[in-house]
Amino acid sequence: MTWRKSTYSGGGEGNSCVEIAVLSTRIAIRDSKTPARATLTFPARSFSAFIESVKPGRNFDELA
Q1: % helix / strand / coil in the chain, to the nearest 5?
Q2: How far is CA 3 from CA 49, 55, 59, in A?
Q3: Which of 3, 6, 42, 57 is geometrically suited to a Cys-Cys bond with 19, CB 3.0 to 4.6 A?
Q4: pLDDT by residue, tens only, the chain of 64 residues
Q5: What angle (nearest 5°) sits at the alpha carbon of residue 40, between those of residues 21 and 4?
Q6: Strand, helix or coil for residue 4
Q7: CA 21, CA 33: separation in Å to the nearest integer?
Q8: Nearest-5° angle of CA 16, CA 31, CA 22?
Q9: DSSP string, 36-57
Q10: Cα–Cα distance measured from residue 56 to residue 50, given in angstroms and rounded to the nearest whole number
């Protein structure tokens, strides 16, 4: 499994970010600060739908 993090995180030590890995039909997500801890997985279609809704800058504050 190859983990990737956003290029916006800087890539160096101390640049914490959410990392993703593409599996066959799912997307895995983990916190780069604690990679050995819990990993979440989502169906690829659901993750894609989430990313598409975030791109336009939708405000998710009402979910908090």
Answers
A1: 25, 25, 45
A2: 20, 21, 27
A3: 3
A4: 899 987 777 666 656 788 999 999 999 999 888 888 889 999 999 999 888 888 776 777 776 6
A5: 25
A6: strand
A7: 16
A8: 115
A9: TS--EEEEHHHHHHHHHHHTTT
A10: 11
Residue carrying structure tokens 């990737």:
4
Tokens of 2: 């190859």
Amino acid at 8: Y
Q: Pull the structure tokens for residue 46.
A: 């659901």
- Cα–Cα dist 40/59, whole Å: 23
- Ordered by start, the domain boundaries in the chain are 4-9+16-57
